Amino acid sequence: MSTLIIRPAERGDMAAIAEWNMAMAWETEQKQLDLQVLSRGVAAVLDEPRRGFYLVAERDGAAAGCLLVTYEWSDWRNGDIWWIQSVYVTPDARRGGVFRAMYADVAQRAKQAGAVGLRLYVETENLRAQQTYQGLGMEQCHYFMYEQMF
C-alpha cells in the first residue's frame, strides 16, 4: 500500500512548484509562462506567509503535486475565504486521490483557522476538474470573473 502525505512547501520545493505551474498553465490554457517571473512569484509566497502558502503532496516519498492557498477578506461574512489556486498533480499520480487528499487537508486547515469557506476557479472547458470539485461538495458560483492585468 502506498503512503500519501500532505505537507507545507519548503524552499527546496520551489523549482518543482515553478515547473508544475508552467506545466499547468500550458495544459489548461496553452499559455507559456516566464520561468524567472514564476520562480520569483513562488519565492514571494514562501517569503511572505501573509500572501498564502503552498502544500505539496508526496506519494511514497516522491512529490506528486501541489496547490497554493491565498486569502480573500469577506466583509459580508466577516471572515477569510481561502482560495485554492495553482493546482497541479503529476501525470503519473492523477486519478489516484492526490487532489482529494490536498483538498481535505486545506479544508481542515481552513476550519481550524476560522476561515468561512473555500473557493477556486476552473477553466470553463475543464469538465473533469469540475466533476471532481462537485464530487467534493463544492458548488458552482453565480459569478463571472473579470480581470484587467497590468
UniProtKB/TrEMBL annotation:
Keywords, sorted A to Z: Acyltransferase, Transferase
The keyword Magnesium is annotated on this UniProt entry: no
The N-acetyltransferase domain, residue ranges: 4-150
InterPro entries: Acyl_CoA_acyltransferase (IPR016181), Bact_Acetyltransf (IPR050832), GNAT_dom (IPR000182)
Pfam family, one: Acetyltransf_1
Name this protein carries in UniProt: N-acetyltransferase domain-containing protein
Organism listed in the record: Dyella nitratireducens
